[in-house]
User: Fold these one by one.
Assistant:
Number 1:
Amino acid sequence: MRVTQSVVKTLREAPAGAELPSHIFLLRGGYVKQLASGLYSIMPFGKRILQKIEVVIREEMNRIDGQEVELPLSQPAELWQESGRYTAVGSELLRFKDRTEHPMVLAMTHEEAVTDMARHYLSSYKQLPFMVYQFQLKFRDEPRSRGGLVRVREFTMKDGYSFHRTDEDLDAYYQRVYTAYERIFQRVGIRPVVVKSDTGIMGGKLAHEFMLETGHGEDYLILARDGSYAANQEIAEFHRETVPESPLPVEKVATPGYKTIEDVSGFLSVDAKKTMKVVLYETEHAKRKTLVMVALRGDLEAGEIKIRNYLKVPWLLPAQDDFIRSFGIVPGYASPVGIAERSDLLILSDLSIAEGNNFVAGANEEGFHLRHVNFRRDFQTPHCGDFAKAVSGHKSPDGKAELHAVRGIEIGNIFKLGTKFSESMNCAYLDESGQHKIPIMGCYGIGVGRLMAAVVENSHDDFGPIWPEEITPFHVHLVAIGKEPEVVEACEKLQAEWDAAGFEVLFDDRDERPGVKFKDADLWGVPVRVAVGKKTLAEGCVEWKLRKDKEHTVVPLSSTSDRLKSHYRK
RNA sequence: CGGGACUUAGCUCAGCCUGGUAGAGCAUCUGCUUUGGGAGCAGAGGGCCGCAUGUUCGAAUCAUGUAGUCCCGACCA
């Protein structure tokens, strides 16, 4: 490919708003062009990379017996009503009507479509297990797209779905996918951190996310430094250290105007760890507006995902003061002491409170707190569990390792779905004894464009991306220095020779100064750069430079094909 | 959905405070010169100053509204 014939334009400066290295370089290198918020046009160089990423993923999916399919992007709403997601998912699901006023959606994932396919195909246990996968657009009407290609509204995803007779069979296959994912990420040069992740309110038993650790990530991961623990912060567990004390009598103290944990602990000279924080949410539980009171140790923060998962509710909002007061609870001095659970008032107690003693808690009276509040003696609730957020400095659940929080980009996920979709959508088969059985499903996703962005985050310098050999848009970047006939002729001969040897050659034949070409070479990130200039050519030599190295070497022109072969191990 | 900012040439931005009809650098086109890390000179093309309404003799500039974009947070099967 000649640069003069390529549909590519580089930018000297980053467009306003681009902050992540991947965003800046993908725009500056002419790989992608933003069309609107969260919508990107992929230009030829970007498309070449995406296609190669798809090749890598396809090879690894086929290796674990996946079969490629393609499922529609636009789907009738009925399909989503069957699974229950039509109402369970919010505005992220784009709903529209077709020409005949039929309600439709743009798929955000393809569980419904694949389950529909499976229920028509599947009739006998003899057909199980199987896995199908596709590369297909997803549309998610993100409330906030950001970070260039990291979080977009429309994107191509590799999504795979497996069907099994037993949990054991799913477990075994899940492990194979896990291994396939490790191979995929290794081939694009990424060493992911694998964390346990939230399975959401749609059900499912176990899920892992493959994360690229990067300061620019949008997820927070909780990791043990010794590798013994890794989880998404949303669900990360931790060990609560408590020193048992004997309960002391409750004592009411005046704390005029002191409402926050910081104020109260300062005023009463007690450690925040000896205070009780009460966080109040409102939600819809059992079909009515419900107040959720969560009691935590003062130094902890509420873990909203944990609370939502415990209550099996899709959302929590900070409770309004009026609503709080209607239960006799006083904002700023709130406490579960003296408050009884009702059908529309749930009291949750974090383990830190249940296992500790003698907390300073609100008195539900303006200007007063209580000393020495103890769980069970002073208040009770059956809802006792892990409702706090793990942060840096906490101990891992076994109490042995220190945890720390890092940011990461999710580049893949695997999920034991269970029978959520197969059951609601009547996907069944007959077993040996003629009994109807529901297949157990797993699903497995990788965002292709996001992975390209993640590769740049993972592999770049100050001047541009450094593409891994497996997914580079070209194998070798041939740069003509000057336009002397002998230089042009030598370049054309080299291009033809390398083409014939099966290498993808990018030939910069532009009438540009060397500096311009070298800057662009850095933005295009091709692993091998060969520069042909008059001086070295007179000695039968060219310049050989690897993108990852700073310096070039002068090598015989005749050796370049062999060098390429050995570089690419062909 | 909250909080903040921005919107002027293909890109990055100045001009706005103090109203008088549009600027720079880069990019593009022409010519010359130059040729090893985004050269120089001369010339040319390119603008509903996001949109709407208002104030004014006159609005890129002031006011109100609205849309788009970006950042932080919420949300994220």
Number 2:
Amino acid sequence: MAQNTFQTLRDEIENGIVTGEFAPGERLDEAQLAARFGVSRTPIREALMQLSAIGLVETRPRRGATVVDPGPNRIFEMFEVMAQLESMAGALAARRHTEEDRAAILKSHAECERSAQSGETDSYYYNNEVFHRAIYAASHSGFLEEQCIALHRRLRPYRRLQLRVRNRMKVSFGEHAAIVEAILAGQADAASRLLRDHIAVQGDRFSDLIANLDRRSKPGAGSQGR
Amino acid sequence: MAQNTFQTLRDEIENGIVTGEFAPGERLDEAQLAARFGVSRTPIREALMQLSAIGLVETRPRRGATVVDPGPNRIFEMFEVMAQLESMAGALAARRHTEEDRAAILKSHAECERSAQSGETDSYYYNNEVFHRAIYAASHSGFLEEQCIALHRRLRPYRRLQLRVRNRMKVSFGEHAAIVEAILAGQADAASRLLRDHIAVQGDRFSDLIANLDRRSKPGAGSQGR
DNA sequence: CCGCGACATATTGAATGCATGAATGAAGTT
DNA sequence: AACTTCATTCATGCATTCAATATGTCGCGG
């Protein structure tokens, strides 16, 4: 790996953000982080710079860095864009997928099935990511693949919430099956449409979730366990 | 703006990259840049970190930062994604645009017309950007708008090449007219399709351009894709 | 009693210094 | 003569230090 310190730190902090260890809106104190990781402030700053450029943290001059809080509306917008990009990846994959792509998609799809049937949400969550990445790769557009992976990462925490919803995992797997069929049959339009719906529905579900949470708990500022 | 030093530097270097002052593949020496801008190496490093996170420069451990050279293939992929995002923005704009959006679109469109008729490519280039940004804004999706602006910036140098092509400016303006009509009439599908083609044709033209350049000059240093 | 202003403190932003690793050149060996 | 190896040099990466600014508190005046 030969990772440099600041790259390791960047991944570490990014991971802390998407896993919710650092809550949205939380202030990221440089000295504190430096002490925690046992390094100087310099590499911490460099890591925060990169995260700031990506859009995960917000740095205001002289006022430090805070974990960005997208807000429900912005998150919904991100799902919309994600849907558009995934649908594009699906269309390209339908037209361009090779034999290896086909094998990778089928394999990850099978893994998803196993997780779905045994009801292991964590496992499904992981395999779902592998599945979607297989589609990105099959699009044979390196840039699109990168964009999709980046957005997928950013949406990870919000996606995770949804698998807890009743039956979502089974439904999701059912959608996967149709998507696989369309892609492997080379039906670009169908793959595009199915993937768009597959992602868009997550945005809708997220909205529903937010609406419910808002109704239920008004002062619940932080992370809702459930 | 009262930007901080490193933010100013970031914009400065980014600008230098998209204007071609820093050639693709060129090594960005920290000390050199520091001397040039009259600052220490620290803010330079921070600026390079951000650019690295955006994808404009590539930093390899212990080997410094170089301007990233996407290569023809990658650039074409970027145009493809841009087309998809713009088409999405157009569809949303058709459905959501307000009276102010309508005014902004018409105004920038008129500016484009003036530039096109007087044949001023530089002016058209600028007004074209304003026009497209008006559409992004009319989509009323803050996240989509940001993504579009960022990608537009990155594609700026390659887009600029194309306006020199014979008659491209007039053709481009004609496409704009149809796009405006569709958006203002609320025809989301038409707007989407027209915008996709409008951008996609730029990717195609870029490919043609590259093909020509390759044929003409073989030992041309930098840009090698694939 | 409330509001405004000045000062102290703490945190960020920039500069400098030092160590490590990579690139380059020369010298020796095959 | 060419290839390999070692030493030297220089850029990068991190730590430390110095400076500037925002925030919070205390005091004074209305």
Number 3:
Amino acid sequence: MIPDLSSPRPHAFPDAARPIGDPSWQRTAKLWSTLKEVCDLLRIPVTTAVAMQEDLFQHVQFKAGQRIHTIGQPFDVLYVVNSGFLKTVMIDAHGNDQILSFPMKGDLFGVDGIHAARYECEAVALTNCDVILIPFKKFSALGRAHPELESAIYGVMSRELIREQTMASMLGSLSAEARVARFLVYLSERFGELGYSGKQFNLRMTRNEIGSYLGLTLETVSRTFSAFNEMGLISVDQRAIDIKDFNALKTMRRLPASRNRKEKAAAAQQAAA
Amino acid sequence: MIPDLSSPRPHAFPDAARPIGDPSWQRTAKLWSTLKEVCDLLRIPVTTAVAMQEDLFQHVQFKAGQRIHTIGQPFDVLYVVNSGFLKTVMIDAHGNDQILSFPMKGDLFGVDGIHAARYECEAVALTNCDVILIPFKKFSALGRAHPELESAIYGVMSRELIREQTMASMLGSLSAEARVARFLVYLSERFGELGYSGKQFNLRMTRNEIGSYLGLTLETVSRTFSAFNEMGLISVDQRAIDIKDFNALKTMRRLPASRNRKEKAAAAQQAAA
DNA sequence: CGCTACATTGAGTGAGTTCAAAATGCGTGG
DNA sequence: CCACGCATTTTGAACTCACTCAATGTAGCG
């Protein structure tokens, strides 16, 4: 599109924005991982047979702002995030773009490339990061050799599909407040699973990027953060978030509410029958 | 044309609402299909080896209003639509529900069940329909025997993921008019591919269902149809649609527009590969 | 320091929702 | 066959949430 391949974004991601305990990217730079290590990252249970596989998967490092793949680029590898934070962006026919996900440690991306052998979206590093290249051919061949691995692959793809469905559902039915609350809950839970603090963390993305992801404007995101702050649900200062009332966020809705009244009534009727 | 067999819902789907050339469901009732027939339906290219497979897949018929599977139900089969129209519905923790897709001939559904071995959404027949049961175990075993088939399976799953991504993108960025226009374009193209008229067709779903799918209220859907009618883009009478200006629908946007200005500017900045 | 990107906050507007009422279409039961 | 009942659709009027436009504040970097 508009390739200006020089300078990575100026002052994009200060150290202060790193997560507590963020593995120092440069020092831990690893070059290869075994199949077992990849499966562990993806939270796939491994059998001994799989654990024995000696195939190695290459790591690649990207700096903040760098693009991992572009739209239309020929597909041949899937990616697993080992460290760092990314975004995936879809750009429609009219140049409108929309953020689809914020992959982080243990997430798989690039799956959309399988269908037409071209990536349908682009992936960009939000921070310096380390990703593992999974040549798709090799991966599916391993799946053929190890049925449990194969079904795990299907499982991971299915999980991705469910994620997108849940996203679509959220965009279709929740208010701005509810969307932002869910986003915070999601981040909190993910950070918790990754061993960081689920209460205090730093956002890796701009208000604009959050807005694009949630189908809102950056101003609405900012205002909603401020509102949560005043309500005592969180404390927010720029990218730094401190969750004070997790439960309130988790149960927040303020939904358009009556959109489905009749349909629900009908469903109740049918359930009774 | 077709005698309505005592459908549970009263006056749910009148004969007038059937598509031109709709295969007569009762008469063509088929009990089993070969792997090749299933692949053809799914638009998967088949090799001779696959064409030779003698495995048979069972058909099941559902009447309008019947449920194919529920949320939480144990997963063991995928479904391919042979005829008729369905909807898939996700219901969130608070009972809010959202329509995710309207599967029709050649579509696969149930993929979301793979991950947790339970369906994550429910599927309901909008019209009488005929679906093919694909036991997932059997399907993946066949994939292992025929690598081309396996990669086709991955391809179909990837296609589903892209569909959801595109949906999320649309819900996040398009105006009500643009969403409705896209919906009509989508239906028109699908009907065309299925050999029906892409210009004149009957909607198989209510305004409420369309609204749920598009993240709008039923009133907005109705008003938008009326507006398109007055603009001369379509002619609409209840469920009957006649598309007059396909191109205008296809290029319609009325997008929030400035949401991504800054981000686009930033996108010009690209780091070296 | 000044530059640039990012974030916050305010005021006004508008697209889409909510609530309400009337019209249409279809099946059922008299 | 017609009248009634029910689901659905259409249309109107008022409201409101989120967007737009704009100004100000903050943080890091050259």
